[in-house]
Design the sequence.
């Protein structure tokens, strides 16, 4: 082989795992792409001995909140630097955060602003979903179709949250548009009217502590909205994706739709698998570490969600990383020191811990196969959101985005060892077995575990590239 054909890197002797397979092989990288997979590949300029390690596609985290405009005065702690760094340190190589339309402002302005925030800062590759809060006639007629054409092929709407809540006719318009344009609507399914009504009642009765968050938005408000979102999608003849599903009741509706043959996709997140209402009952500000929307539920719900992951009702396991700091005036305390369920912004961090938690609790505990783990965390999000086969797999010709995993590495999660800009993790002190030892993005080392728990992170901020997505691919479900 002449020098120009030489591989840049060969990962030798590991076990490659994809969404469908697991086999011993070497993997060679050239020019940032996977160039060959096979036995006894020729030497590369660089070699990695992966004996005893798993060679996995880098994770695709398709639900995370990074550097969005403030929500009710609360600022997200992570910008693209700290979020992409944190993702890479947990084995994730692609992130898809949200360009968030401020009510009354053009969506295009949100997209342009978001590009300015990402450019020059991201350590790994990224795409954008959109958040549509104000579906005007011009947004539906011109702005959104043009943005879909440019590669922003998925967008989220809310059935709750003052300022963002859309009513059924607007959701129907957007669903019809996704059908026409080959895009995908992501729905935050909680009935905001019910949450508001119930919140007023709780507040009037003086039940205002953080545990009331769970009572203000019980499973039935998620169940009703989930059913309605599915029915609206059926009426519009469109696919729909239910995000951050928290309860067994909502999952029942999803299965109901899927059993009818409707194209219903669904996502859940570690906080709903590992936290619960009892965490919201913790004393003082400790409870705020678990406060997210929908609220975490009970142990039976969590077990139902695990079954939903294993049985294929869920296609996606994302972080919904939403890093409001606990300390200081900008995050969870942005409306003051009062522990009032309506004053603490919802959201928990989780970009870096998503894969290790799901690996430990899912694969190591026998709830998920390795292939399911890869499918839920990398391949399916890449497929659903139009990034596959470039991302999310180990395909020759695809980007060499790889997480080299040590399945036996024991780690006690400590926020001090994580790399985000938040100031806590809901999983402090939790022990996991299995963590990446090296993350490659297009063949480049963006993180490796050196000495010490925090490892060595690349300083090449800005190397991460924007990924425009194709509608044809977005229209292909797994
Ligand atoms: O509590 C949550 N999930 N905060 C993030 C915003 C959202 O609804 O995804
Ligand atoms: Zn949401
Ligand atoms: Zn979210």
Sequence:
């Amino acid at each position: 082989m002449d020098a120009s054909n030489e591989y840049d890197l060969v990962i030798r002797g590991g076990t490659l795992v994809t969404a469908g397979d697991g086999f011993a092989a070497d993997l060679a990288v050239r020019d940032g792409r996977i160039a060959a997979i096979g036995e006894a590949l020729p030497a590369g300029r660089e070699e990695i001995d992966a004996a005893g390690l798993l060679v996995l596609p880098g994770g695709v985290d398709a639900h995370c909140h990074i550097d969005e405009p403030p929500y009710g005065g609360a600022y997200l702690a992570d910008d693209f630097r700290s979020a992409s760094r944190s993702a890479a340190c947990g084995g994730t190589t692609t992130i898809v955060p949200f360009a968030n339309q401020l009510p009354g402002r053009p969506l295009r302005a949100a997209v342009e602003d978001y590009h300015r925030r990402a450019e020059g800062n991201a350590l790994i590759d990224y795409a954008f979903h959109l958040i549509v809060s104000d579906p005007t006639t011009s947004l539906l007629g011109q702005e959104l179709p043009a943005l879909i054409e440019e590669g922003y092929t998925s967008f989220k709407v809310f059935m709750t949250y003052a300022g963002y809540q859309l009513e059924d006719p607007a959701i129907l318009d957007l669903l019809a548009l996704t059908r026409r344009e080959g895009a995908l609507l992501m729905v935050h399914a909680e009935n905001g009217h019910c949450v508001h009504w119930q919140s007023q009642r709780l507040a009037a009765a003086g039940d205002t502590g953080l545990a009331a968050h769970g009572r203000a938005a019980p499973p039935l408000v998620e169940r009703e909205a989930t059913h309605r979102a599915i029915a609206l999608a059926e009426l519009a003849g469109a696919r729909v994706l239910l995000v951050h599903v928290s309860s067994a009741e909502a999952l029942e509706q999803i299965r109901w739709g899927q059993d009818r043959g409707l194209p219903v996709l669904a996502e859940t997140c570690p906080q709903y698998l590992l936290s619960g209402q009892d965490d919201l009952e913790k004393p003082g500000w400790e409870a705020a570490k678990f406060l997210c929307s929908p609220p975490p539920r009970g142990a039976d719900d969590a077990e139902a969600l695990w079954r939903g992951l294993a049985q294929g009702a869920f296609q996606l396991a994302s972080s919904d990383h939403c890093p409001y700091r606990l300390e200081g005036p900008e995050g969870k305390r942005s409306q003051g020191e009062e522990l009032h369920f309506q004053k603490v912004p919802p959201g928990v961090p989780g970009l870096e811990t998503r894969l290790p938690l799901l690996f430990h609790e899912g694969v190591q505990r026998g709830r998920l196969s390795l292939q399911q783990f890869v499918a839920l965390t990398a391949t399916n999000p890449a497929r659903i959101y139009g990034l596959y086969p470039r991302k999310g797999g180990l395909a020759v010709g695809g980007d060499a985005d790889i997480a080299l995993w040590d399945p036996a590495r024991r780690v006690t999660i400590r926020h001090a060892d994580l790399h985000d800009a938040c100031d806590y993790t809901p999983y402090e002190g939790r022990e996991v077995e299995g963590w990446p030892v090296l993350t490659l993005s297009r063949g480049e080392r963006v993180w490796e575990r050196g000495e010490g728990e925090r490892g060595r992170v690349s300083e090449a901020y800005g190397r991460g590239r924007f990924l425009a997505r194709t509608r044809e691919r977005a229209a292909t479900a797994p």
